[in-house]
Recover the amino acids of this structure.
């Protein structure tokens, strides 16, 4: 079985080539691309190849027939040498002036810089704190008592009713020596003063 040839790395892309080959595909019109997808500066005229999505120099940008340089799809010197057969040597129709391209590029970057995020961040809904009676009811419910609230309250009142009544009875009794010295006695009945007749 013959040994497979060693894999060659991608060649550096030359900005000018002497190849006279021309792709049979229709010419790529620059105005159909977005301003950030091509560069019309004479020193580094290039664009993103629509087929392999890599930046490729344009040769003869100031000549009659500018075209894309024959290029590989990978990075030069690192990726495998896979020739872009569809995009290489394709003619370019430059129908956008340098000034118009630069204005469109600057306008687009200004609009992008002024954009803000439109995502609305909603505040989380905070649950109101439960009342003390609700906390007590939940505590009793977790301890195994599943009866309705009014029955729980009735049971609580029944357990404390006698103590409350005893306290009320003791409050109603007057202790000995309640009257202050050298003073009229404390009235034990509610007074209802009457108006004097004129």
């Amino acid at each position: 079985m013959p040994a497979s040839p060693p894999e060659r790395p991608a060649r550096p892309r030359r900005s000018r080539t002497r190849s006279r080959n021309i792709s049979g595909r229709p010419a790529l019109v620059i105005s159909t691309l977005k301003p950030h997808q091509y560069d019309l500066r004479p020193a580094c005229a290039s664009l993103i190849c629509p087929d392999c999505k890599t930046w490729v120099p344009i040769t003869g940008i100031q000549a009659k027939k500018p075209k894309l340089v024959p290029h590989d799809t990978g990075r030069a010197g690192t990726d495998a040498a896979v020739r872009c057969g569809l995009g290489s040597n394709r003619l370019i129709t430059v129908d956008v002036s340098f000034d118009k391209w630069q204005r469109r590029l600057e306008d687009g970057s200004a609009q992008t810089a002024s954009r803000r995020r439109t995502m609305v961040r909603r505040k989380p809904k905070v649950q109101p704190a439960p009342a003390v009676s609700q906390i007590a009811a939940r505590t009793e419910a977790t301890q195994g008592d599943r009866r309705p609230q009014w029955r729980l309250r009735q049971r609580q009142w029944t357990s404390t009713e006698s103590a409350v009544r005893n306290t009320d009875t003791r409050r109603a009794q007057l202790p000995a020596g309640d009257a202050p010295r050298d003073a009229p006695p404390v009235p034990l009945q509610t007074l209802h003063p009457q108006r004097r007749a004129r």
About this structure: Residues 149-172 form the longest helix (24 residues). The CA atoms of residues 133 and 149 lie 10 Å apart. The mean pLDDT is 76.
